[in-house]
Amino acid sequence: MKSITVKPEHSKLRQLAIKAKTNHGYKLSQEMLKEIEMIEIPMLSTGQKHDDEKPMYNLLPANAIDSMAKVMTFGANKYAPNSWQMVDNPLERYRAALLRHAFAIQRGELIDNESGLPHSAHVMVNAAFINELEGSK
């Protein structure tokens, strides 16, 4: 006899499996086997991937992420790679930098004069730094 894996979402199968366990010590009666055969279970033509509860990274906007990488590259060349992690008073300073870039956008200035990159990308990078630092507390 083949073993049957019962998923919680297959309530009818689950009920039958519980019934089989309690009444027959895991042996299924002919009546139960007939009931199970009548239940339609979709056959998989491809593999399975249980990722319903995982973050959907594919939804991240590619151009925004690309702009952030350009800002990070600019900073790495100006200072040093990952030097943002060694700044004194980082939360206060990155919040101030985020606001400076956001207010520049508010004034109608879309491109940062020093980097030549969008202020919005600088805002996202500073927000990412803040998020990362807050998550490490």
What is this structure, in a nutshell?
The chain has helices at 11-24, 30-38, 62-78, 90-106, 119-135.
Please supply descriptive tags for the structure shown above:
single chain; 137 residues; mainly alpha; 0% strand
Largest sheet: none
The coarse overall form would be elongated
Label the structural class.
mainly alpha
Annotation field: number of helices: 5
Could you tell me the radius of gyration in angstroms? Answer: 28 Å
Q: How much helical structure, as a percent, in the residues?
A: 40-55%
Separation, N- and C-terminal Cα atoms: 54 Å
Task: Describe the protein.
The chain is an all-alpha fold and 137 residues long. It folds into 2 domains: 1-42, no CATH class; 57-135. It contains 5 helices and no strands. It has helices at 11-24, 30-38, 62-78, 90-106, 119-135. Helix 3 (62-78) crosses helix 5 and helix 4 packs antiparallel against helix 5 (119-135). The longest helix has 17 residues, at 62-78. It is elongated and about 80 Å long. The mean pLDDT is 84.
